[in-house]
Amino acid sequence: MDDSRPIFAQVAENIENDIISGALPEEGQAPSINEFAAFYRINPATALKGVNVLVDAGILYKKRGIGMFVAPGAQEQLKGARRDKFSSEYVRPLLAEAEKLGIDSTQLTQMIAKEAKNS
Asked: Do residues 46 and 9 make contact, with C-beta atoms less than 8 angstroms apart?
């Protein structure tokens, strides 16, 4: 866990990562609140808060008496949100810096391709 962000937000992000990777498939049952609490070694109320963030966003849904499940379309919804966040946090600043330095789109594409090849 990262001390700079609230634990419940980290729990929600870890669940999101599992959905994006396919470890938690759509319509699949998510671990219980107590299982999350035990896994992360946190208070069940904190785990519940993280899960409720995803319930409120429509990523998880509750089946009364059964548990939490991954909503249909959750993976694409999360990927779309992450793409938007990636664009605003990385691509826009990259383009702004490239413009300051006089780097055109062709040069920028070449730089990205070179770095991708080296990684």
From this structure: no
Phi–psi pair at 71, nearest 5 degrees: -70, 150
Find the angle CA(72)-CA(75)-CA(78) to the nearest 5 degrees.
120
In contact, 61 and 27? CB cutoff 8 Å: no
- Quote the pLDDT of residue 27: 97
Residue 28 has pLDDT above 80, yes or no: yes
Give the pLDDT mean for 87-93: 96
* Residues 6 or more apart whose Cβ sits within 8 Å of residue 40: 1, 7, 11, 14, 47
* Length reported for the chain: 119
Helices (H) and strands (E) in the chain, counts: 6, 2
CA dihedral of residues 34, 36, 41, 46 (deg, nearest 10): -80
Name which of 67, 74, 1, 75 is nearest 34 in CA terms: 67
Q: How far apart are CA 108 and CA 111, in angstroms?
A: 5
